[in-house]
Model the fold of this input.
Amino acid sequence: MKNEIDLVYLWVDGSDPEWLARKRATTGDFQPNSETDDVARWLSNDELKYSFRSMEKFAPWVRKVFIVTDRQVPSWLDTANERVRVVDHSEIFPPEALPCFNSSVIEYFLHRIPGLAPRFLFANDDMFFGQAVGPEFFFGEDGWPVLRLKRKLFGKLRYAVKRALKMGFGHYRRMVYRSACLVEEISGRFFSGIPHHNIDAYVRDDYARAVEQIFADEVCKSQVNRTRADGDFHRSAIGLWALAIGHAHMHYVASRSESFRIPVHKPDFMGLYRRFRPKLFCLNDSQHSSADDRRRIVPFLEELFPEKSSFEL
Done:
């Protein structure tokens, strides 16, 4: 299997005054404690720098890295490195979707990145390689991606019971459930597993077909939402659709040693990491995190990944 696999990141620096001015002019101020528009959605704690370090240490076979962002460049990034390219929203977005502060919408246009390899990985800037992994961790011998899900028992019944008991779903879970329903409508199959919230794998042509043909109406309706909104089409539908047509391999995450989401408001990052030694992990910031929680991020990542990568100045 050829190792022509790229890695795509979404990144934003929410402390940049020019970016802040654009966001406030478009969507107003941040909404504290909001699941969709809290400041946690935009803050940068230099996670991207350490994610690059983790990739170079544990997945050096990645061909090229693309950073999708809005008129920003990380201050530490060596843009002369031929293996990295910063991609501005304006290069891949339709004009009517700009400006955009909705990560779900940004994800619709990844397949338009100039020069993107036929197979690629996708990550947010808070996702990391925690142990050595090869291309076969993400793609089968036939070239189709491995779709990692977390098992949720009882399928649709579980959602029906929660609704009957008036147990609310968060915004993210509502989007994921809607993705499963959309795929069921066109394939007759309902997948009850939910995304593992970590680095994912895709085939570029299938990604393009899903966005531009299969779910084109959903994408068109959602792309005008400047920040996250109920009813947004979610990327998880792309992976589930690929699974439904036999263009992906379903894999339920067996343990936190494989893929681990560490909430930033948890007190002991290093203790959790050492306990599970995950192959992939995500430091998931949210409206539940405090400034003190976030101050622990860089010391933790610096201890894990102290050596500069070739992508740094």
